[in-house]
Amino acid sequence: MSRFWNPDLQNLSPYVPGEQPKLEKLIKLNTNESPYGPSPKALAAIAQANNDNLRLYPDPDAKDLKQAIAKHHGLQVNQVFVGNGSDEVLAHVFLGLLKHPNRPVLFPDITYSFYPVYCQLFGIDYQTVLLNSEFAIEPNDYLQKSKELGGNGGIIFPNPNAPTGRGLPRSQIERLLAQNQNSVVVIDEAYVDYGTESCVPLLHNNPPNLLITHTLSKSRALAGLRVGYALGHADLITGLERVKNSFNSYPLGKLAQIGAIAAIEDQTHLDVITQKVITTRTHFVEKLGKLGFKTLPSSANFVFTHHPQHDAASLQQALRERGIVIRHFKTSRIEKYLRITIGTDEQMDALLSALGEILLL
Prior knowledge:
The chain contains 11 helices and 13 strands. It is α/β, with parallel strands linked by helices. The chain starts with 26 loop residues before the first strand and ends with a helix.
């Protein structure tokens, strides 16, 4: 520890992103990136905007992008917030909407591991709520935990959840929202386009305590562009804008804004590439089952699976030695599981072939 550090840094456990290895002929299935490229319209828009105007600052309010997002979702512009990837958006959410003295934030015990990091960084109290025995979120457990604690400072979880891939129907979240009127409910919809009901239609009634976050990194295949956004009541969005403008007035560059607009407007491309992933996922899970794997139901672009007779960490290492990278979490309750991103049919067949060889050793 440096003597110049903020003392709080000593006890901070930073988020560990998925590895970005530099291996020859790599099959990379560890960070839930799209196996297909972004919208050609987005690439063309970025290329056209790559000119001398980059000497000028971008629009700090990203008005055109907000307008495109609002139109896409049938909302008003004042219901939209944008940021440098959904991670930055979520950081502003934790600081601006989920920090309340003596009222802990609630989220699942197995979920996106950035949530506890934000809480540590911003000094936010939190409590985890156990997933059930099938690794699914039980909304009633959040209401029960809130009663036990005398309230909460907010509820947040991904839908579908990560790393499990399990989704909740909108009706269950709607009931949770109705019974949790005194704090914000944040639904992180990073993977929603792969088969989960979105909660965005609930915003058409303008509830005061629902916030939804999205990213262009997954289904829209723009992880390298770093664009995320939040949707919610104008009062919530104003709070996020206050945080953003106290931190970085220009979170999105010109190329990011222009590329994101084109991607948002190209619904046909989104539908095509997400359907490819969904079809591949279905076939892959069936073939995993024939190899003896037990896989959780997934409505994301990844699956969460384990083999009853084989150690997950050993399987991960054996695959890596064959140039195939997947994700393993050394975390209580899920150390037996592997998270595998859905790639192309050819990539998944290569993975299955390698697993078949490994299981025979």
